[in-house]
Automatic annotation (TrEMBL):
Residues 548-619 form the tRNA uridine 5-carboxymethylaminomethyl modification enzyme C-terminal subdomain domain. The keyword Zinc does not apply. GO terms for molecular function: flavin adenine dinucleotide binding. It is found in: Cytoplasm. Keywords: Cytoplasm, FAD, Flavoprotein, NAD, tRNA processing. Its main location: cytoplasm. It comes from Faecalibacter rhinopitheci. This is tRNA uridine 5-carboxymethylaminomethyl modification enzyme MnmG. One of its GO terms (cellular component) is cytosol.
């Protein structure tokens, strides 16, 4: 017998969700087994070799602040870094990194191997062992029965996965890897609802066959930042991406393949990610646009393989090749792998609690693409939360839930379990009501103490976070106490068309002027000396500037967020009977009964539940 004892937590699947779930549960002291179909593909990036981006970068920072691994692994393996949206306010600044695909997966595997309490097993889980409404382990394709106190399902795009390239169709979880069977059928038998979604990916090509002189270079940031708040190395060299455009000839060639396209001839019926459309979808929906941007992105430091961002397609391979070779710079492109679409099963996430435990089966958790999301960051953050909560539950500790005003992760999970999703869900800044609070620069302030309190974030992380905010505060105080003289700053102000100072003024008031930056003040000798004496680093300077320049917005948003916290604290009794609330609309009663929100705030976010319905609920609860 291979398995001699029971595990605390079994994680099914070693993608982004599964890897974070494994790390979190194990680091919280749970004896954890990761069962995955292929140990070689732990932490595999199925699509784009990139982490972060708008709103997603904030999520990676949050994972890191809590003590997860995704940020550290990205820092160790990135080949290019860009802070997106720098021309907008800091709520929109979003870190994005291009990673070395092979090293990213290798680093995940090695990081998990170095984590205490983690065991590995390569096999396909075919079913769950369920006894008395509670999950007690898994059964695998090789006939193993492995018992555990909790199970986290993170099957990604593998459940009954079906790959499409033109008229060709074959089973698979992603190209080159088999699909997984059994779990959907069993869960449906147990009363779960299941659905079908689809996603797609572009071709990969040989960089040696591309003519970069016909493309525009897109280099990384001059002073690249990073994802982790811990002591990971900064990038010292970077690889560039390249930009080119499709044209009408390319579109005509693609159109020629439409009648053989599984997207258009009815073969694919499920819904794909609205914001990552395929190239055929783009030219079909935006027929008036005469070109679309294409990025050639290197897949790593040494490999010659390039990812063709913007050209996701499931058209027949001959059509893909012909159209691709009509794009400037791609005339001689050699294709390593064609683009494809994949359909897979998911479970509508309204069947989950805030902890990502299923409502139907105790101690069974679901995280990642299986919950109807798309994206590595969305998956990883759910994995982290499911791993944490599985470990906490079996240790009989309080659940760990993040509110919407505390983290994008809180927004993500609340959206999923309250509203559900009918198309692959990805995060946007617009989904967060309090995005001025949920910035990438302050995820540590928001979350590291929480991560530390549950035992996940290290003492060293907490110390770094405390020091950062103490130093920022010191500098804010300095600017509050010291004045700047007109002679010191007026030349700079006039150069930028501002109105000069007539008399000395407290620095804190002058920094807030739109034409000035904190860097203008750090040039003054006495400020530079103060910064040096107090060892204030770049990150702390950035923090100081944000706190000073956006103080008014942050304060207002915090007041609104505090109001939400009050509603969030109004817990709804779990045994509440909505059917007797006659003055509530029937729709609201039905939806509340189905979703069974945990708090009044969550109830108010369910579509179809009006403020009047909430009043009825409050009256019923005696408020
Ligand atoms: C073709 C394609 C295109 C994509 N395009 C995009 C895109 O454009 N934008 C975007 O944001 N995201 C895209 N994604 C999605 C992105 O890859 C996923 O969101 C992310 O990888 C999900 O992470 P996950 O951990 O949930 O699952 P996955 O990364 O899919 O990992 C699932 C893991 O579970 C294992 N597994 C599955 N079933 C079993 C079983 N029964 N037993 C044991 N192990 C099992 C698998 O081997 C795998 O290791 C795409 C994915 C694919 C496949």
């Amino acid at each position: 017998m291979i398995f001699q004892s029971e595990y605390d937590v079994i994680v099914v699947g070693g993608g982004h969700a599964g890897a974070e779930a494994t790390a979190a549960a194990a680091n919280l002291g749970a004896k954890t087994l990761l069962v995955t179909m292929n140990l070689q593909s732990i932490g595999q990036m199925s699509c784009n070799p990139a982490m972060g981006g708008i709103a997603k970068g904030q999520i990676v920072r949050e994972i890191d602040a809590l003590g997860g691994y995704s940020g550290i692994i990205t820092d160790k393996t990135m080949i290019q870094f860009k802070m997106l949206n720098l021309s907008k306010g800091p709520a929109m600044w979003s870190p994005r990194a291009q990673s070395d695909r092979m090293r990213f997966a290798e680093e995940w595997r090695l990081s998990l191997e170095r984590t205490e309490n983690v065991d590995f097993f390569q096999d396909m889980v075919k079913s769950l062992i369920v006894e008395g409404g509670k999950v007690c382990g898994v059964r695998t394709a090789m006939g193993m029965e492995i018992r555990s106190k909790a199970v986290v399902l993170t099957n990604g795009t593998f459940l009954n996965g079906l790959i499409h390239i033109g008229e060709k169709q074959f089973g698979g979880g992603r190209m080159g890897e088999g699909a997984a069977f059994g779990i959907t059928e069993q869960l449906v038998d147990l009363g779960f609802q299941a659905g079908r979604m689809k996603t797609g990916t572009p071709p990969r090509v040989d960089g040696r066959s591309l003519d970069f002189s016909k493309m525009m270079e897109q280099a990384g940031d001059e002073n690249p930042s990073k994802f982790s708040y811990s002591n990971t190395p900064k990038l010292t060299k970077q690889r560039s991406c390249w930009i080119t455009y499709t044209n009408q000839d390319v579109h005509d060639m693609l159109r020629e393949g439409f009648d053989r396209s599984p997207m258009f001839n009815g073969t694919i019926k499920s819904t794909g990610p609205r914001y990552c459309p395929s190239i055929e979808d783009k030219i079909n929906r935006f027929a008036d646009k005469d070109r679309h941007q294409i990025f050639a992105e290197p897949e790593g430091w040494d490999t010659v393989e390039y990812y063709i961002n913007g050209f996701s397609t499931s058209l027949p391979d001959d059509v893909q090749a012909k159209a691709l070779r009509t794009i400037p710079g791609f005339e001689k492109a050699k294709i390593f792998r064609p683009g494809y679409a994949i359909e897979y099963d998911y479970f509508p996430p309204t069947q989950l609690k805030h902890t990502l435990e299923t409502k139907l089966i105790d101690n069974l958790y679901c995280a990642g693409q299986i919950n109807g999301t798309t994206g590595y960051e969305e998956a990883a953050s759910q994995g982290l939360m499911a791993g944490i909560n599985a470990a906490l539950k079996i240790q009989e500790k309080d659940p760990f839930i993040l509110n919407r005003n505390e983290a994008y992760i809180g927004v993500l999970i609340d959206d999923l379990i309250t509203k559900g999703t009918e198309e692959p869900y990805r995060m946007f800044t617009s989904r967060a009501e309090y995005r001025i609070l949920l910035r990438q620069d302050n995820a540590d302030e928001r979350l590291t103490r929480k991560g530390y309190d549950i035992g996940l974030a290290s003492e060293e992380r907490l110390r770094r976070m405390d020091e950062k905010f103490k130093n920022a505060e010191k500098l804010v105080n300095y600017f509050e106490e010291h004045s700047v003289k007109p002679a010191e700053i007026n030349e700079m102000i006039e150069e930028r068309d501002g109105s000069p100072l007539a008399q000395p003024n407290k620095m804190i008031n002058v920094i807030t002027r739109p034409e000035l930056k904190l860097a203008d003040f750090t040039k003054l000798n006495r400020v530079a000396n103060f910064i040096e004496e107090n060892n204030i680093n770049e990150e702390e300077l950035e923090q100081t500037e944000i706190q000073i320049k956006y103080k008014g917005y942050i304060k207002k948003e915090q007041q609104n967020a505090d109001k939400l916290t009050r509603l969030e604290n109004l817990k709804i009794p779990t045994n509440i009977d909505y059917s007797i609330m006659g003055s509530m609309s029937i729709e609201a009663r039905q939806k509340l009964d189905k979703i069974r929100p945990a708090t009044v705030a969550q109830a108010s976010r369910i579509s179809g539940v009006s403020p009047a319905d909430i009043s009825v609920l409050l009256i019923h609860m005696g408020r």
